[in-house]
Structure formats: C-alpha cells, structure tokens
Design goal:
The structure is a single chain. The protein is of the alpha/beta class. It has a single domain, classed as Alpha-Beta Complex (Maf protein). The chain contains 5 helices and 7 strands. Strands 1, 2, 3, 4, 5, 6 and 7 form a 7-stranded mixed β-sheet that branches. Helix 1 packs across helix 5 and helix 4 packs across helix 5. The radius of gyration is 16 Å and the shape is globular. The relative contact order is 0.16.
Length: 193
C-alpha cells in the first residue's frame, strides 16, 4: 500500500520511512508534485493534523496522513505548543525558535517539557487519529548535531542525551512521533496488510 505523508520535510520523511519499514511505501508531498504550503490555522495539534490530511485527500484522492507536533513547556504555560514551528516568526528558523524558548525560560528551575505528536490518517475518506508523547526537560544549552527542530535543547526523561545527540534509531524508539507512528503502523497492519 502507498501512503502519502503530507510533509515537505525530508527529515520527517526519512524518520517515518525508517519506522514503517518496507510493508508500506511512504511518499512525500514532493513525490506527488505538491510543493506549496498547506494551511495550518487550527488552535490544536489535532485540528492542524486533520486540516493537512484533509487538504491532500481532497486535492489528490490518495490515502494519506499528516502530523502536527508541539513542544509544550510547563513554565511557559504550554508554549510554544501548536505554534512550535513558527514560535520566533514565520520563517520557521529552528535556532531562533530554540533561542526564544531558552530566553523565555531564563534561569527557571522548572524545565519540564513534553513533545506531543498527533497523526491524522485518511484512508478511503475515513479519518483516524493517533497520538504519541514523550516527557523530558529543556536543557540550558544546545547539545548535539543530529535531529531537527528543538532536538538540541530537549532531553527525554531517563536519558543522558538530548534528542540531537541520539542517532535516528535511538530517537525513533522513544520519540513522540515514533510512539504515534507505532500506533499508526499497528492500525495499518491490523486493517490493511
């Protein structure tokens, strides 16, 4: 079965294909000739994920899924949350976003945070949602060179390294997106394999 993952982010696409294996072929938006931005105007991760998957399904009539991910920092009342990608501006600059979180947190001792991913899957016009989350803390400085987004400042609970210090396999085993994907993959295998 072919599924379109509604993303133009090659890092996300690589992460997902590594998780899903060979049982399903995952195509990115570029693979179907779609290079524009999909509107994200929802107030929640659930709304944004659905908005993206519906947009692609209605336009191309293909089985597809989309995700929305947010970093939720306790001391910042859940910010950046649904605005994680654009926290420091519309240009989606990861360094600027991380700096904004670090600056807003300052010397706060409460560094608790969580990453949360919601996946919206549409198969034959019917929608299903899957959620994954991972608790952790915001580091005081960026560490590591792998990963993307907020990975250099997020250290998952029970681990010594930031997401950016882990290889893709290590991160996928514990990440929010990995946990949501496991639920999606189990659903696909149970119903469509």
């Amino acid at each position: 079965m072919e599924l379109v993952f509604a993303t133009n982010n090659p890092n996300k696409l690589e992460e997902i294909q590594a998780l899903i294996g060979n049982q399903f072929k995952v195509l990115g938006l570029a693979d179907i000739g779609f290079i524009e931005e999909i509107p994200e105007t929802g107030d929640t991760l659930e709304e944004n994920a659905l908005q993206k998957s519906e947009y692609i399904f209605k336009k191309y009539k293909v089985n597809c899924f989309a995700d929305d991910t947010g970093l939720e920092v306790d001391a910042l009342n859940g910010e950046p949350g649904v605005y994680s990608a654009r926290y420091a501006g519309e240009d989606k600059n990861a360094d600027a976003n991380m700096n904004m979180v670090l600056n807003k947190l300052g010397d706060s001792s409460n560094r608790k945070a969580r990453f949360r991913t919601v996946i919206s899957l549409i198969i034959k016009g019917k929608e299903f949602q899957f959620e994954g989350s991972v608790d952790g803390e915001i580091l005081r400085v960026k560490t590591g060179g792998d990963g993307f987004g907020y990975d250099p400042i997020f250290k998952p609970t029970g681990f010594a390294n930031s997401f950016a210090e882990m290889n893709l396999q290590e991160k996928n085993e514990i990440s929010h997106r990995g946990r949501a994907m496991v639920k999606l993959i189990e659903f696909l295998k149970d119903n469509y394999a």
